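Pinned message: reference record for NAD-dependent glycerol dehydrogenase
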Amino acid sequence: MTNSGLQDFAGKSVLVTGASKGIGRTIAKMLAARGATVSAMGRSFEDLESLRAEIGGFSLLVDLEDLAATRAAAEAAMPVDYLVNCAGMNILEPCLDVPVETFSRVLTINTLAPVVLAQAYARDRISRGLPGAIVNVSSDAAFMGIRDHLSYCASKAALDAITRVLAVELGTNGIRVNSVNPHVTMTDMGRMAWSAPEKANPRLSRLPLGRFLETEEVAQVVIFMLTNGAQMMTGQSLRVDGGYSVTG
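Predicted structure (C-alpha cells):
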C-alpha cells in the first residue's frame, strides 16, 4: 500500500482551470505549496501573472467559451499528472427570461469545456500508459432547484453526470474522475452575493456548522481527491456543504 501523499506533490504537475481567482486560485497555490508544478489556466492576464509571480509554474491565457482554443491550449499543456476543472460562471435570471444565448454560454464554460479538457488529458495519459485523476469542481446546486439559477443548476447537474460517465469509461485505464460539490463559498464574489443578512441568515440557519465555506476548505478536499488516499474513489459527487444537505 502506497503512502497517501496528502502533503506531497513534489515532482507532480497539475493543470488547474479557473486559476485566476477564487477557489481555483486557492487550489493552485495550495498545490504549489505541496510541491506541484501548476499550469494555471484562466482568462485574466493580470491575475495569471500575479499568480505566477507567487507560485511559479505556467500561465495559460484562455477563454473557455472558445472550445477550439481550449482544446489547443489543453493539448499544448500536456503532459500533466492531474487535471482540476474549476472554472465556472453564472448568470442570474428568472427561468422564464433565460435566453438560449445565456443558457448556451453557461453550459459551454461549466460543462462543455471540462469535457474538452478531460478528453485532452485522458488521451495523453492513455497514450503514455499512465494512470491519473481528474477532479471537477461542481456545486451542490447540482442537487437543488435554486431560484434564478436555471442555467447554473443545469450545467452543474450535467457536469456530475459527465463525471460518472468518465469514471466508468476511463477507470480501466487507471484514471479516476470525481466531482467536489461545495455549498456557498466565500470567494470575493461569494462575499458580495451573500453579505446581506436578510439573504444569508435563512441559509445559515440551515447549516449545522453555522457558516459558509472558505476557499481553502474546498481546495483541501479537491487536493485529497487527487491523492492515493482517495485511490478507490471514482465517479463520486462529494458534497462539501457544512451539513446543509442533511437538514430539513
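Pinned by admin. Summary line: Residues 1-6 have pLDDT under 50 and may be disordered.
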